[in-house]
Write a structure and sequence with these properties.
- Helices cover about 25% and strands about 45% of the residues.
- The strands form 4 sheets. Strands 7-6-9-10 form a 4-stranded antiparallel β-sheet, with no helix packed on it. The chain has a 3-stranded antiparallel β-sheet with strand order 3-5-8, with no helix packed on it.
- It is elongated and about 50 Å long.
- The protein is an alpha+beta fold and about 140 residues long.
- It has 2 domains: about 35 residues; about 110 residues, Sandwich (Immunoglobulin-like), CATH 2.60.40.
- It is built from 2 helices and 11 strands, in the order αββββββββαβββ.
- Strand 1 and strand 2 form a beta hairpin.
Length: about 140
């Protein structure tokens, strides 16, 4: 009787494991490659805190949920004028890229005088390496002293 119970319990456990594996298997495409169903997500945040620190280097962190090729355009908007820089990099899934803008001494002085009325706009265009889908995200950040 005890052997029958163990055999039946083992059979039930094996069936549950097989069903679980069937439901968690990645979806297959026509070419045979596996593709995850979750879309590419982009995260953009200031380097420390919720606002960008007024400094010579304005730092922002960019990350992707999957392997991607990221292009970034950082624009400093002040009452006096605007300035922008562009850059790009290939990112692995979950890794962060610290990017931003380096100001001249005049730019730092200008930002210190007008930081309450200024903002940093970050535009990220990420291309998924595995399937080529493109995602865009734009965020604006205020400054802190």
């Amino acid at each position: 009787m005890n052997i029958t119970r163990k055999f039946f319990a083992g059979f039930v456990v094996a069936a549950i494991v097989a069903l679980g594996a069937a439901f968690t298997a990645p979806a297959a495409t026509a070419g045979g490659a596996t593709v995850s169903a979750a879309p590419l997500k982009i995260k953009v945040a200031p380097f420390a805190g919720t606002r960008v620190q007024v400094a010579k280097k304005l730092k922002v962190i960019v990350s992707c949920s999957k392997d991607c090729d990221a292009k970034v355009k950082v624009t400093l908007i002040t009452p006096v004028g605007t300035s922008s820089v562009k850059g790009g990099r290939s990112l692995s899934a979950g890794s962060g890229w610290i990017t931003g803008m380096i100001l001249t001494n005049y730019g730092v002085t200008l930002l210190k005088n007008h930081f309450r009325f200024s903002r940093l706009k970050v535009e990220v265009t990420a291309t998924n390496v595995s399937n080529g889908t493109v995602r865009k995200q734009t965020k604006s950040f205020l400054f802190r002293r």
